[in-house]
Amino acid sequence: MAEIRVMREDLLPPKEPPRRHLISIGDLQREDVERLLGTARNFERSLERELKKLPTLRGKTVVNVFYESSTRTSSSFELAAKRLSADTMSIKSTGSSVDKGESLKDTALTLGAYDPDVIVIRHPQIGAPQLVARYTGAHIVNAGDGKHQHPTQALLDLYTIQEELGRIEGLHVAIVGDVLHSRVARSNIQALALMGARVTLVGPPPLIPRGIEAMGCEVSYEIDAIKAADVVYVLRMQQERMAEGANYVPSLREYTARWGVTPERLRSGQKVMHPGPMNRGVEIDPVVADAADALIEQQVRSGLVVRMAVLYDLLTHGPAGVQAAAVHEIGAA
Ligand code: ASP
Asked: Residue 184: which of 266, 62, 20, 299 has the closest Cα?
């Protein structure tokens, strides 16, 4: 008869599950994404009612801290928390020239004193969300850290694609433009690959990081490559993140001429997405931005319900995933 051995850990009470954060798409498994998209769909239905507020997160506190400018992300997180009846507080900073690690730590300690349940943070430095996770007891949501990650953007993009095209698996998405400085591109490459889509990055060689294929995507330096995709995802030229004096492209005008997404470069029926803010006439032709096949407004609408789903998921301890990422020191932006 097999011997049954009792291990010491079996006699101990179950450990507290680790505090959950959403810092990177890498925190998620496919089933987490499916659960979040399903929750977002339910919230979307709830918003069709006349009374849009749900009591779900009554008594919870959500703090939004934005060290970088934002329109869509900050407003949708705030509205998402309000629609779920949470108390919200928004702190904006235009960034500062003081030692960012030190000032962020102080801000985190100050906010932590109010015992918030969730802190949503956007910061120009990679690793800022992990630092706040270390100094507060809140669940942390990364609303964009430097050029690293913007996980809720990728989730709302997946949601938009799923709702508009009926599936994600097997679709071909071309991401065009300044991939080098784009946290949206990084999060989307991971998220789309996780859900079984094919991703091709298209842009001038200096704006496509070397070796990025290792993330599970293809690369093309020919703008014509976008014609083969089901979805064309356009990125902004993120000049605020470009090293001073670096010439990634000869000029914006030249960029537009060679890489701008124009009606002529698209095939009919292709869907076009953009995370915003758009620079019309630079990376995207206004005709493309306003066409019926552009999903840009749908993306904004999806942002609200997806962020409601993320807050709900973190606070109701949904199953698995969204684990605390390893804490590391703030790195270079
Ligand atoms: N809004 C997006 C971000 O925060 C994209 C952009 O700024 O171009 O990364």
From this structure: 299
Residue 144: CB within 6 Å of ligand 1? Answer: yes
Task: List, for the chain, all residue ranges whose pLDDT scores fall below the cut of 70.
Answer: 1-2, 4, 6, 9-10, 13-18, 94-102, 317-333
> Probe ligand 1: pick from 141, 145, 147, 153, max atoms within 8 Å of CB?
153
**CA angle, 309 as apex, 36 and 195 as ends, to 5°?**
25
Number of Cβ within a 10 Å radius of residue 292: 6
Give 107: exposed, middle or buried? Use CB within 10 Å, 0-12, 13-18, 19+. Answer: buried
Let me know: does 218 contact 199? Beta carbons within 8 Å. Answer: yes
Q: Is the CB of 275 under 6 A from ligand 1?
A: yes
Q: Are 315 and 87 in contact (CB under 8 A)?
A: no
**Mean pLDDT in the chain?**
89
In which residue are the tokens 């100094």 written? 135
